[in-house]
Amino acid sequence: MIPTEVAAMMDAIMEDFGIDEERALRMAWRFYRIFHPEAQTSEEENRMPDYKKISYFLFQLLDDIDTTEDIAKSNDKAFREVVHKLHRRRFEVADTDGYTVTFK
Question: Residue 49: pLDDT band by 50, 70, 90 thresholds?
Answer without folding.
Answer: confident
